[in-house]
Amino acid sequence: MDTALLLSGVLALGIGAQWLAWYLKQPSILFLLLIGIIIGPVLGYFQPDEVLGKLLFPFISLGVAVILFEGSLTLEFHEVKQHGRMVQNLVTIGAFITIIVISLTAYSLFDMDPQVALLFGSLVCVTGPTVITPLLRSVRPKKNISNILKWEGIIIDPIGAIAVVLVYEYIISGGHNSSLMLFGEIVLLAFVMGMVGAALLAFLIKRYWIPEYLRNVFTLAYVLFLFSFSNHLEHESGLLTVTVLGVALANWKGFPRDHILEFNESLTVLLISMLFIILAARMDLAALATVGFSGIVLLLIVMFVARPLAVWASAKGTSLTTNEKLMISWIGPRGIVAAAISSLFAIRLEDQNLQGVELLVPLVFLIIIGTVLIQGLGAKLVGTILQVREPSNNGVLVVGANQAALTVAKAIKEQGFEVLVADASYTNISKARMIGLRTYYGNPVSEHAELHMDLIGIGHMFAMSTDRELNTLCEMHYRHEFGERNVYRLQLPDEKSRPERHRSQQSFASHYLFGKDMTYSKLASMVSKNARTKTTNITAAYNYTQYQQDNKNAIPLLIIDKHGVMRVITTDFNPKSQSGYKLVALVTDGEEAETVKA
């Protein structure tokens, strides 16, 4: 088969797997590995060793180097301190316990060299945000659980990578007392080159000696060259060098990390899409079958012994309940770092004559697929049984931080719901922060927002900006994320006056906030009259019709039913047949207030 056609087909399948994961809100690594196994060892359509030949090893090496650099570029030391004792303990004490338990188990169950067992334990101690975040959005655990799991995944990714690379460097050095000097030389060289490399790159960029349009590609070329040059000076030191480089730049004051991180994250998606299919296509199904029952036992110990032990030890002295600790124990899927590095190290250790090296890849893949499938499919049931799930993603993303939007956002927060305000105006965002709202400063439909805006617990979107085009873009962008019925917009005056036929030309029907007659100008005028929010119990004795008669100038915003679920007042809302809920409305003091006209 034509090599170009084959490689472009693999890339197309990889991007297709990423899209499928996005659509189903599941970790992409599962689909990538399954596709690779199917087109590789199962059907025999794709044999990476034959197609890539001598380029296979350099491609995998450079790909892993970029993945490690991108991961380490997210490790900011101050973040470890600011996310609570539980997260700090999980990425230190918990990681150590996990490595020890899994290493001892692998050594006991398989005829494996102790060094290889330690390397395996280090590989599978890492979770990662790419597998955790989709599960959290789907499962909807309580906010404290979500925050712990989310930040554990973000921080443990680079920390685990450092641990894995250090163990690998120790093995490469010989692992004997006489080889400790070589191990020290590798670590010292990597540390010096990483720090000096970070200082040079930061100096060049901060002095504007590199034009902005070249920063991203210059950094990529710089990382790959430093990786290769380090390996040239000291065999196998490159991975540790780029990891040190990434950590140093992440904590370098004034370094424009975010722009470079965006580019590297996009590149990482491209690399992962191809790399994981290639790695899975090299899988030896016979080797996977040889792990047999022992492999299943190892998987169960990883899930039901190592993880709970790490969580319980880390939770000592915290206020977590037993059910919350059980839920955190259940969610611990393994991800990208384990799959990428295990395959690379297995290739590099082939000539070391270490017992059990051939089991690294099948065991790691077994752990990844097993934890993602079992924990992913069972997380909702476990969360429901433990009663640690939110009834629904009732939080609201409010697009726009004008005064009308902030009034609505504050009213929602006062009812106990999560609120996130997004706006590209720093002045407006500052006002939102001043009244205690969680904010995102930037364009809510940008790539930066896609990567950095925390939507855990958020299930609705209110487009309340004065920019009509931005409101439309937000409607389209968040329809898949939240569902069409949970995406709303506030009408602007010119939209209300547009002919109906112009509205019908849209590819979707907008759900307008607070009724068909409500517009931004009407709401803003109400806010300018010092309107406040008021909560009223609607019952059979005091129904919605009576409420409207008594409060002609009120603007109903939302209702909260007896189960604590929020429903938004929209054009198609019919409350007259309902009772037994709380109505939240915007009112002005005194009945003498005039009716506000649109």
From TrEMBL:
<feature type="transmembrane region" description="Helical">
    <location>
        <begin position="267"/>
        <end position="289"/>
    </location>
</feature>
<feature type="transmembrane region" description="Helical">
    <location>
        <begin position="29"/>
        <end position="46"/>
    </location>
</feature>
<keyword id="KW-0050">Antiport</keyword>
<keyword id="KW-0406">Ion transport</keyword>
<dbReference type="InterPro" id="IPR036291">
    <property type="entry name" value="NAD(P)-bd_dom_sf"/>
</dbReference>
<keyword id="KW-0472">Membrane</keyword>
<keyword id="KW-1133">Transmembrane helix</keyword>
<keyword id="KW-0813">Transport</keyword>
<dbReference type="InterPro" id="IPR006153">
    <property type="entry name" value="Cation/H_exchanger_TM"/>
</dbReference>
<keyword id="KW-0812">Transmembrane</keyword>
<feature type="transmembrane region" description="Helical">
    <location>
        <begin position="359"/>
        <end position="379"/>
    </location>
</feature>
<feature type="transmembrane region" description="Helical">
    <location>
        <begin position="148"/>
        <end position="168"/>
    </location>
</feature>
<feature type="transmembrane region" description="Helical">
    <location>
        <begin position="295"/>
        <end position="315"/>
    </location>
</feature>
<dbReference type="InterPro" id="IPR003148">
    <property type="entry name" value="RCK_N"/>
</dbReference>
<feature type="domain" description="Cation/H+ exchanger transmembrane">
    <location>
        <begin position="20"/>
        <end position="380"/>
    </location>
</feature>
<dbReference type="Pfam" id="PF02254">
    <property type="entry name" value="TrkA_N"/>
</dbReference>
<dbReference type="InterPro" id="IPR038770">
    <property type="entry name" value="Na+/solute_symporter_sf"/>
</dbReference>
<dbReference type="Pfam" id="PF00999">
    <property type="entry name" value="Na_H_Exchanger"/>
</dbReference>
<protein>
    <submittedName>
        <fullName>Sodium:proton antiporter</fullName>
    </submittedName>
</protein>
<feature type="transmembrane region" description="Helical">
    <location>
        <begin position="116"/>
        <end position="136"/>
    </location>
</feature>
<keyword id="KW-1003">Cell membrane</keyword>
<feature type="domain" description="RCK N-terminal">
    <location>
        <begin position="396"/>
        <end position="488"/>
    </location>
</feature>
<feature type="transmembrane region" description="Helical">
    <location>
        <begin position="90"/>
        <end position="110"/>
    </location>
</feature>
<feature type="transmembrane region" description="Helical">
    <location>
        <begin position="180"/>
        <end position="205"/>
    </location>
</feature>
<feature type="transmembrane region" description="Helical">
    <location>
        <begin position="217"/>
        <end position="233"/>
    </location>
</feature>
<feature type="transmembrane region" description="Helical">
    <location>
        <begin position="6"/>
        <end position="24"/>
    </location>
</feature>
<feature type="transmembrane region" description="Helical">
    <location>
        <begin position="52"/>
        <end position="69"/>
    </location>
</feature>
<feature type="transmembrane region" description="Helical">
    <location>
        <begin position="327"/>
        <end position="347"/>
    </location>
</feature>
